[in-house]
Amino acid sequence: MFVKGVGITALNFSIYNRYGQKVFETLDQNIGWDGTYLGKDENSGVFTWVLEYNMVNNSAGILKGNTTLIR
């Protein structure tokens, strides 16, 4: 799972499991989550993501959502 977009100058992208444990975090748009945590595959399920971003036009925001991991 990657953050895709044009004009993003900074971001903090985090993914959490159903227990609220952070399983992934990146500050780099070119690094995405591969469905693992500490080198081990995560079980199928729903994960929550949070994206904090800054844009080239000086706007900023926070987006939140869910994604389902299917194995």
3D architecture notes:
The chain is mostly beta strands and 71 residues long. It has one domain (8-69). The chain is 0% helix and 55% strand. It is built from no helices and 6 strands. It has strands spanning 8-16, 22-26, 36-37, 40-41, 45-55, 60-69. The chain has a 4-stranded antiparallel β-sheet with strand order 2-1-5-6, with no helix packed on it. Strands 3-4 form a two-stranded antiparallel sheet.
Keywords:
71 residues; four-stranded antiparallel sheet; 0% helix
Which secondary structure elements does this structure contain, and how are they paired or packed?
Blueprint: E1 8-16, E2 22-26, E3 36-37, E4 40-41, E5 45-55, E6 60-69
Antiparallel strand pairs: 1-2, 1-5, 3-4, 5-6
Structural class: mainly beta
**Share in helix:** under 10%
Classify the beta-strand content into a percent band. Answer: over 45%
Q: Biggest sheet, open or closed, and with what strands and sense? A: 4 strands, antiparallel
Distance between the termini: 14 Å
Counting structural domains, the number is 1
Strand order of the largest sheet: 2-1-5-6
Q: What's the count of strands?
A: 6
- The 3D shape can be described as elongated
Q: What is the rounded Rg? A: 13 Å
Can you count the helices?
0
**Helix-strand pattern, N to C?**
EEEEEE
Poorly predicted ranges: none
Average pLDDT confidence is 97
